[in-house]
Amino acid sequence: MAGSPLSGPSRLDGQIALITGAAGGIGRAVVAAFCEAGADFDILGGTSVGAAMMAAFACGADAERADQGTRNIFVTSRAFRRLTLPRYGLIDHKVFDRALRAEYGDTTIEDLWRPFFAVSSNLTEHKPQIHRSGPVWQAVRASGAIPGVLPPMEWNGRFLIDGGVANNTPISHAAALGADRIVVLPAGVACALAAPPRAAVATAVHALTLLIEQRLMLDVAMYHDQVELIVLPPLCPLSVSSSDFRSGALLIDRARTATARWLAAGNHRLPHPERFLSLHRHSDLVPADHTCTESAARSAA
User: Fold this and answer.
1) Which site in 102, 159, 170, 215 is 20 to 30 Å from 280, CA atoms measured?
2) Which residue among 48, 120, 241, 243 is the active-site one?
3) Is 180 a known active-site residue?
4) How far is CA 64 from CA 31, 44, 57, 104, 274, in A?
5) pTM assigned to the model
């Protein structure tokens, strides 16, 4: 671990968690950049697409396989193109469920190579639902049930929807599992859209990401004195959703390069990690290699 961005006195006595929300292929790129820098993680957790990605890593997949598995679920299966008459959701969930079963099989969370948890939102009991046991595919399904798009997941008499509604980037839950150092991968907000989304699914996803980012800002400010937080700056400017797999190759390349540069500069050691998060938009196009967070890092140095 010498020279690792996560090395330090607390590493020998504590545990490091990586948590993320609906970050799509960006999550795969960031994990790859951290591993190349010599980092390792003891606990993996996530919600929505992030739950699918972290579950793949917990199964022992490398970055390429984790990304391919997530694409199989959300893109190759074409599950999100199977519209149905809306009673509980716009999408016919049966295709999505089959894609999840095909990817994770009968694997249970208890059997994974690394400790893993997923978060969904419990509509029955009005609270976050933490998945630490049971079939992996069910945990990912519940965590990714976008309200109005996919119907709730029925689980032990409870109705569960996307974890982003309750706690998309679950800092508190990672800390409760014993993590002393938590790496937070924000999904980010499409802050450079040419126009607001019009399609029903795209609108729902965009609205959810705005809610998620605002909640994350509050959580980082609340917990940064209780555990050691390393908050990765989201990609910025971002003209598509971070979970848009059609732009996956570009987003992955940008995320991997930006993360490696950010770590090499030592920005993960800067205080007040909430400085890297903000709700904003770009009225004019800015260079693709520019990141708003680079300015924050320079001002904090």
Assistant:
1) 170
2) 48
3) no
4) 11, 17, 10, 16, 30
5) 0.77
